[in-house]
Amino acid sequence: MGSPRIRLVLTSPDEMPTLRRLFDDPSFHGWGGASPLSDRELAAKYAGDRLPEVETFIVEVDASPAGLAILHDDGDRVGGMDLILLPSTRRRGIGRAVVALLVERARDVRGWMRLTVDPDLSNEAGIRFWEAAGFRPLREEPASEGREAFLLMEMVIAEVGGPER
């Protein structure tokens, strides 16, 4: 059995049925805000309405939807990344492969120099994943309305003086 084929599919309204199936999975409940999301909320957040500042991708593994990945522009050549995979896809190296694809896009297409992630402090497995993927802790942020306390983490993906975009 060879390595899985991983592909990132930029979302559009055409992907709404796939987004609905992913967000109906219990592992997605609570991710990205309140659950369950209505179709209108799902479309507004994840079906391409926020381009170009936010790019949302369906993660496909061997041509089957397996998760969701997001790049969001934070300005000044810095962006954020979010990733959630279905449980059946986890602990197989797929998450790290997706991170590598997103880093490449952030650097080479978006021209970003740094990427951040913000796992909840209670998500110890998530923090370990992001550290293993190359992110380093910057600081803890306190809980706020609608958000648990989280750890802001960063990865430098390009050196100063790299190409401007």
Automatic annotation (TrEMBL):
PANTHER family: AMINOALKYLPHOSPHONATE N-ACETYLTRANSFERASE-RELATED-RELATED. Residues 6-158 form the N-acetyltransferase domain. The keyword Metal-binding does not apply. InterPro entries: Acyl_CoA_acyltransferase (IPR016181), Bact_Acetyltransf (IPR050832), GNAT_dom (IPR000182). Keywords: Acyltransferase, Transferase. This is GNAT family N-acetyltransferase. SUPFAM superfamilies: Acyl-CoA N-acyltransferases (Nat). Pfam families: Acetyltransf_1 (PF00583). It comes from the Bacteria. It comes from Labedella gwakjiensis.
